[in-house]
Amino acid sequence: MCGIVGAIRAKDNVVDFLTSGLERLEYRGYDSSGIAVVTDQGIERVRRVGRVKLMEAAAKAAGLHGYLGVGHTRWATHGGVTEPNAHPHISNGLIAVVHNGIIENFETERTRLQDLGYVFESQTDTEVIAHSIHYEYTHHTNRDLFAAVQAACARFQGAYAIGVIAQDQPDKLIAARMGCPLLVALGERETFIASDVSAVIAFTRRVVFLNDGDIAQLSITGIDKMVDKSGTAVMREVKVSALSLASLELGPYSHFMQKEIHEQPKAITDTAEVFLVGGFEPANFGDHANAVFNDIHSIKILACGTSYYAALTARYWLEGIAQIPTDVEIASEYRYRKVIADPKQLVITISQSGETLDTMEALKYAQSLGQKHSLSICNVMESALPRESELVLYTRAGAEIGVASTKAFTTQLVALFGLAVTLGKLRGLVSESDEQDYTNELRLLPGSVQHALNLEPQITAWANQFASKSNALFLGRGIHYPIALEGALKLKEITYIHAEAYPAGELKHGPLALVDENMPVVVIAPNDSLLEKVKANMQEVAARGGELFVFTDLDSEFTASEGVHVIRTPRHMGVLSPIVHTIPVQLLAYHTALARGTDVDKPRNLAKSVTVE
């Protein structure tokens, strides 16, 4: 959940890259930051609690200068938000380490190292890494930093991405990865490491993605050597990143969340293109997809957070269109229960980053049980989940910087809809006429989303009423219940208003007790077969003095009245209606956050890429 940068350069001050790289990674979430640089005086370090700008100012005031260094933005796991717990961690002035992930056996290792005479200055598991490497470096490997890192990593249990420098090795930077993202970027007589390509894109586009277990030694000329988890020498492919630097800039928008909400017509168009151009064909999901899809009789979807709500929505499509039994589970729960494995079941993982640790570990668990068929739906090329999956479909949302996911969610829905139609067609359940209808609906979708975006002024007026509230209730039925869940999550994430979502029919089974004049109730009420049922549920709210905020369709028969506010999205979009109705709940959360003055793009306690358990 944190950010790592590091560099070794031939002539330019490494501090410039470290600070700019960390600023690019701020969106991932953090509570402190720091850098360590090899200078003529040894390893010099600057750390600060709070924003990167504070640390950058301190480094500038100290005149920090060098050609080898590492940096980090920390999101507290072990130990509080304090400067001693901030990275980098240094062992005896000789070894400096930055680390993402969690060392699960750190307490055992801490005791072992204390018995060896090491003194700990922090509460973190990362300091264990620094001291372990120091011990191996000074006792067992004849000052071979690469071998010392290799030996230390063999002792660690858990997940990690680490960058290591030594005071007496100014020409070497070591990188190691197990379960957390880390890449190497190759410049002209300079080499970088980062947990995300956005940190290096202003300096180079040539990147090498490390695999789990890889350890690499870097110099100004590139990768000097690399081994995989078995210790065998390897070299990974150099790729050219397609990430646009412009996508990392705000442009005319006030926040990345706002920018990304308004980018959804294009993101949806780009993601749908594979189906609009190539049709609903198995080949869109991989060369062997046809054989895989013909070998399955059910689906298991594993995901977390917003991706989990996308999966809940997709279950309606997969069972309704393809008539294939579909089960959806929270990845972090699935991996800790006894599971009845089914080799004829397709395991689908969904993740914006492709690095979500719980989802990654859930996939590995499924595979260990004999689940041989897997599909990843992901937004980041070459990330961990696609590499570990048999099949993959990339969403084309572009870079998503705001912590609260918006365009990643709607493009996941487009991808999952495409999968449902593809499977339905393959199983003989989608006729040519049906396929043409689905194609036309998909083609019209971006325009309907733009129409929903045009409702922003009306939604802003609602947001001003929500800003003074402490609680909110979201209701939906059928395929729109997951959209109510997503709306409640967005409001919680960025406004800090407590919000819950329920199937509207469940009101009378408990939640109705919460309803009074101080509890705004948001209702997703499209003009579908359940509309009359939803209207009856709304009457239950109105009878208790609750104030209703209803998102409905242009062609539904709703009349605003005292205590009942109505905003109409475009005409009912049929099977794709959930995607259109996502837009208003995103805008409601965004503008309520603005009215409350919260940090929209960096909500407290949260991170963009969740790479810890």
Question: Any overview of this molecule?
Answer:
The protein has 613 residues and is of the alpha/beta class. Helices cover 36% and strands 23% of the residues. It has 18 helices and 24 strands. The chain has an 8-stranded antiparallel β-sheet with strand order 3-2-4-1-10-9-11-14, with helices on one face. Helix 3 (106-115) packs across helix 4 (126-139). It starts with a strand and ends in a 17-residue tail after the last helix. The mean pLDDT is 90.
- Rg from Cα: 25 Å
Low-confidence stretches: none
> Globular, elongated, flat, extended or rod-shaped: what is the shape?
globular
Structural class: alpha/beta
* Order of strands, widest sheet: 3-2-4-1-10-9-11-14
Q: How would you characterize the largest beta sheet?
A: 8 strands, antiparallel
